[in-house]
Write a structure and sequence with these properties.
It comes from Blattabacterium cuenoti STAT. It catalyses: D-ribulose 5-phosphate = D-xylulose 5-phosphate. The active site is at 35 (proton acceptor), 175 (proton donor). Pathway: Carbohydrate degradation. The protein has 217 residues and is an alpha/beta fold. It has one domain: Alpha-Beta Barrel (TIM Barrel), CATH 3.20.20.70. Helix content is 34%, strand content 19%. It has eight helices and eight strands. The protein has helices at residues 17-25, 49-58, 76-82, 97-106, 152-166, 180-188, 198-201, 206-215; strands at residues 4-7, 32-37, 63-68, 86-90, 110-115, 133-137, 171-175, 193-196. It is globular.
Amino acid sequence: MRKIIAPSLLSSNLAFLYRDIEMLNKSEADWFHIDIMDSSFVSNISFGFLFTKYVKKYAHKPMDVHLMILQPEQYIEQLKACGADHLHIHYEACIHLNKTIFSIKKNGMKVGVAVNPHTPVFLLQDIINDIDFVLLMSVNPGYSGQKFIQKTYQKLEDIKNLILKTDSSALIEVDGGINLENSSLLFQNGADILVVGTTIFSDSNPKEIIHRMKLGY
C-alpha cells in the first residue's frame, strides 16, 4: 500500500517559505502541494503562478498543484511552464471535463479530478480510466485548518470500489482536516495520498509528524 504525504504550503510560514521548502526537501514528504484559488470558485485567494514557479526552483520533489478556480482549461500551458508535475481540476468547475483532462495530459502532466464534499463520486465513472488521481475534499475547499468531514470515509470506500470495478489505475488523494489520528485510518481504508497542512506546519517538529504519518501511528 502506498503512503504518500503531500504537505500543503497553504499552511506554511510564508515569511520563511524557503526555510519550509528546505525542511520538506530533507523530510520524508513525497510531494509539495500547492493550492491556487481565484476567489470565485472558492471565497479565498491564495497562490498564483509565480509562487508555483518560485517553489519549483527550490523544491526537490514533485509539484502537486490543485486548481480551485473557474475555467482551469485556460491556464494549463502556463502551469506546465511554472513547473507543475500533477494538476488537479475540480469536477464542479469544468464544463468540458474530458477535453480538459486530455489537454493536461497532452502538456505532459499527470491529471487529477477533485470533488467537493457534496459531490457523489459515481459521477466520475466515465473518466475514471483517464485520470491519474481522484482528489477527495474532506473539508469544504478554500481555507486550511477546517474540521475533517466524517462522511469522507464512505466516499473513500465508494471511489475505491469504482476503481476496482473499472480496473482503473487512479490513486486516491484526500485533502483537508487530516491529523495523526485519522491519517492511519485513511490509509487503512484505501487512501494512497494525504494532503496535510496545519498538522505538519503548526508542530515544533514537522519532520517527525511526517515520519509518524508514513509509519501509521
